[in-house]
Amino acid sequence: RQKRAYVRVYGIVQGVFFRSTTRSVAKRLGLKGYVKNLPDGSVEAVFEGDEEAVEKAIEWCRRGPPAAVVERVDVRYEEPKDDYDDFYIEY
Question: Would you name the residues annotated as active-site residues?
Answer without folding.
Answer: 19, 37
